[in-house]
């Protein structure tokens, strides 16, 4: 089994690390990690730690959460374009989530939902 | 197709809705049609497993149509399930396997609570990397809207123009779930609360249209619906047996894209829609200018705006303005969703793609009633799965 899997990715998130992988053949970066390079198809991949800094490229204040997020009330969730290039979805943990707009600079953090660690971002 | 609705069908099962839709399709065949003429059945369905505790959907439908033994296929590509079923049905005929197929779609959603439906629909997103951080479908399309607004300097008013237009069209469609325009809804809810609204946009800006996921409000979202739709596809060579006025599938396309929205370079376009339409236009030897009527997948108002750009009707960033200027209205240059779209007609997800084909069949034969686009000869259907990880497009021509 490939080491580049959801369990490993989530394990790193819980440790405060934002880990994707890099194609050894073409240099393409992936987050989350993939088993096959999305650009060249190579299976020669290596772990790559992202710095966790980026710019919010899409964001919404969600007032109709799914059942597992009901307890949070309205919360912001969005997509962050990381400085290294790829982008990733995350929960926004800032205060005043209704004020968060596209273009805001954010950094990776971990939010807790019971025992579960959730990939999240905050303003630096 | 059945009427789409969230209450009318609540005591029925999906199979009963499907048979109702198929009987109407058979009844519309000028020279008569027996279900047993079909050599195969293709059924689009997202998740009858979750919605009504019934799997193995295609076999159920084949059985209830009384056409055993035939190859019966259930197709699941989220909300593009029956658009995909239609393409596969056409391919089955093109392959020579059979000359006649029944293609349909069905979804029976209203037995679950709104929260349960939200969770069920979220199964079509990336459960490991999107819904796991708090995304739902309304919030994914809201994220698309936020990126679109930023990139093109667009505003919510352009989305409201889509709502107003689609409700106006739905009011003319006896199959639609909502047969009231926004003005009528504003009057009704205003009377209830002792309030008056200046105009439709004044109502849509009010607290009676609450935010679901900013910037999308309640009336930017399609409703929860039950319904089924069915069409009969036959080979060119045998069409004369059934009718003198067939509608031809002139071109079709389908494309996939990343399951998570975040894995794409641009959140303001659905690449799969661009690719599927390019393939359909090529097969039909057509261009966007040839399309006289189109049903596009407006699960959320922003989706219609993006669709009209992806399909080449308007340049990027202009789709919202075009809606505001009335260019997509029944009497506009590109009439979009004359049947009310998913917004007003309803969206029983697995039935939607074939319901679009049903609308094009009616339009191109001049049988669309009050929402008829006069003289339409070429039409297009655009059916999207989730946030564009599956998209199907068909181009239809009067035969």
Summarize this structure briefly.
The complex is a heterodimer of chains A (124) and B (399). Chain A is mainly beta.
Question: What are its keywords?
Answer:
heterodimer; A: about 120 residues; mainly beta; OB fold (Dihydrolipoamide Acetyltransferase, E2P); 2 domains; 5-stranded mixed barrel; 3-stranded antiparallel beta sheet; 1 helix; 8 strands; about 45% strand; B: about 400 residues; alpha/beta; Peroxisomal Thiolase, Chain A, domain 1; 4-stranded mixed beta sheet; 15 helices; 10 strands; about 40% helix
CATH topology of the domain at 14-112 and 224-241 in chain B: Peroxisomal Thiolase, Chain A, domain 1
CATH homologous superfamily label of the domain at 14-112 and 224-241 in chain B: Thiolase/Chalcone synthase
Chain-averaged pLDDT of chain B: 97
| Count of the domains of chain A | 2
SSE order of chain B, one letter for each helix or strand: HEHHEHEHHHHHEEEHEHEHHHHEE
Measured between the Cα atoms of the first and last residue of chain A, the distance is 37 Å
Major sheet summary line of chain B:
4 strands, mixed
Largest interchain contact: A-B, 33 and 36 residues
Q: What ranges of chain A have pLDDT less than 50 throughout 5 or more consecutive residues?
A: none
Side by side, the strands of the main sheet of chain B go: 2-1-3-6
Shape of chain B: globular
Detailed description of the structure:
- The complex is a heterodimer of chains A (124) and B (399).
- Chain A is built from one helix and eight strands, in the order αββββββββ.
- Chain A is mainly beta and 124 residues long.
- Chain A has two domains: 6-50, no CATH class; 53-122, OB fold (Dihydrolipoamide Acetyltransferase, E2P).
- Chain A has a five-stranded mixed barrel. A three-stranded antiparallel β-sheet of chain A has the order 2-1-3, covered by helices on one side.
- Chain B is of the alpha/beta class.
- Chain B has a domain at 14-112 and 224-241: Thiolase/Chalcone synthase (Peroxisomal Thiolase, Chain A, domain 1).
- In chain B, 38% of the residues lie in helices and 16% in strands.
- Chain B has helices spanning 14-27, 48-52, 57-65, 81-94, 114-122, 137-152, 156-170, 182-193, 200-204, 239-242, 271-284, 301-310, 319-324, 341-345, 352-364, and strands at residues 40-44, 72-75, 100-108, 211-213, 216-217, 226-234, 247-256, 293-295, 378-385, 390-398.
- In chain B, strands 2-1-3-6 form a four-stranded mixed β-sheet, with helices on both faces.
- In chain B, a hairpin with a 2-residue loop joins strand 4 (211-213) and strand 5 (216-217).
- The longest helix of chain B has 16 residues, at 137-152.
- The model of chain B has no long low-confidence stretch (mean pLDDT 97).
- The interface between A and B is medium-sized, with 33 and 36 residues.
